[in-house]
Amino acid sequence: LGMEESQAKRALLGLPVLLGLSIEKNLEPKVQWLKDIGMDDVQLHKTIAQFPELFKYSLENNLKPKAQMLRDWGFADSQIAKLLSIHPQLLGLSAKRLAHRGSVLAAHGPLMDQSLGSVMGLNDAKFAARFE
C-alpha cells in the first residue's frame, strides 16, 4: 500500500488479525473501493491507520450501504472520501444509528461534512442533549 512504517504499525496494533486476512478477498477490494470513492493515497493511508477495523466489515452489506446513505443525503464521493479520511469511525456506526442521527441533524439544516463527522462520535446522551 505504500504506507509509512508508523501507519502500518498503528494499523496492525489496532487490528492484529489484519495479518491473517486474505489480500485478494478482503484487503484489495476494500482498498479499491476507498480509491473508487475518491480517496487519494494520503487519505487512504490515514484512514487505514486510524480505523483498521474497516477490514472487518462486509463491503457489500455494510460499507457500500453506508456510503450510499451519505450520497442520499447529498454528499458527493469526494466529500465522502474526505469525511471518511477525517472520521473513519463513521464506518463503525450501525446503519440504524447513522440513519437516525442523519435524520435528526437534517431537521436542523443541511448536512455538512465538517459537522457530520464530529457529532456522530458523541455518545447518545450528549447527542440527544444537543440535537433532540
Walk me through what this model shows.
- The chain is built from eight helices and no strands.
- It is globular, with a radius of gyration of 15 Å.
- It has helices at 5-14, 23-36, 41-50, 59-72, 77-86, 95-106, 113-120, 124-131.
- By secondary structure, the chain is mainly α.
Give the low-pLDDT segments. Answer: none
**Overall SS class:** mainly alpha
| Measured distance between first and last alpha carbons | 42 Å
- Globally, the shape reads globular
Chain-averaged pLDDT: 87
Largest sheet: none
Count of alpha/pi helices: 8
Helix fraction, binned, reads 55-70%
The total of beta strands comes to: 0
Beta-strand residue fraction = under 5%
C-alpha Rg (nearest Å) = 15 Å
The SSE order reads HHHHHHHH
Brief descriptors of the model:
single chain, 132 residues, mainly alpha, 8 helices, 65% helix, globular
